[in-house]
Design goal:
By secondary structure, the chain is α+β, with helices and mostly antiparallel strands. The protein contains nine helices and five strands, in the order ββαααβββαααααα. The chain has helices spanning 17-25, 30-40, 46-51, 92-104, 118-136, 146-160, 165-172, 177-180, 189-199; strands at 2-5, 11-14, 57-59, 66-73, 84-90. A hairpin with a 5-residue loop joins strand 1 (2-5) and strand 2.
């Protein structure tokens, strides 16, 4: 885990995928797990998580994968009335968890999965991070915020998995590469070894 202190005293935290997975694992309810994973596995902002309803989930054309419609996404251009819409990737196992939760709680298609406040979601992440810190003996978890989950998602796709920046921009709702650059951490030594070994230099 790498942390970087900001001028205002807050921290930016870069988690590996294994470090990130400790957070949903330490969620105390299924709803908390879903909220955390919508940020860390789908790249949603906190505000976007609060808008998610069962009707926003669709099966993709291959019949095996799922996408999640994000409504009212952040719009820095002012071009969209009510925010930008986009579709992002929804992991199959997360869709199954959501489907089970919706069924167990008899949620209607137009009911929010997480009918809480932004601060509540921030508390859920802090609570899971504190539990992970206690179990693993790593106090850096106590610095993790909701925004770090979106950063972890983007960094994992771009740096660890070499997904095309254009795809990540589309899934995450960024309008330019400059907008996602702050989400990137420097490549690890292992990334460099693996990438450069493939080009034969």
């Amino acid at each position: 885990m790498r942390t970087e202190r900001n001028k205002d005293g807050s921290f930016n935290v870069w988690l590996t995928r294994d470090e990130y997975r400790e957070l949903p694992r330490h969620a105390t309810t299924t709803q908390r797990e879903i909220a955390i994973r919508l940020m860390g596995d789908c790249g949603l902002r906190v505000r976007e998580v609060l808008d998610v309803q069962p009707r926003h989930i669709d099966r993709m054309t291959d019949g095996r994968h799922y996408e999640l419609e994000v409504i009212g996404g952040k719009d820095t251009t002012g071009e969209y009335d009510g925010g930008k819409h986009r579709e992002t990737w929804l992991p199959v196992d997360l869709e199954a968890t959501i489907h089970r939760y919706v069924t167990e709680h008899d949620l209607a298609d137009d009911e929010p999965l997480v009918d809480k406040s932004k601060r509540t979601l921030q508390y859920w992440v802090e609570d899971a991070a504190d539990a992970a810190a206690d179990e693993l003996g790593d106090d850096d978890y106590r610095r993790v915020s909701t925004h770090d989950l979106r950063r972890c998602w983007a960094n994992h796709l771009l740096v660890e998995e070499n997904v095309s920046p254009r795809i990540v921009m589309a899934l995450g709702g960024w309008s330019s590469y400059d907008a996602i650059e702050p989400y990137l951490a420097a490549p690890t030594e292992q990334n460099i070894i693996e990438s450069m070994s493939e080009v034969g230099l």
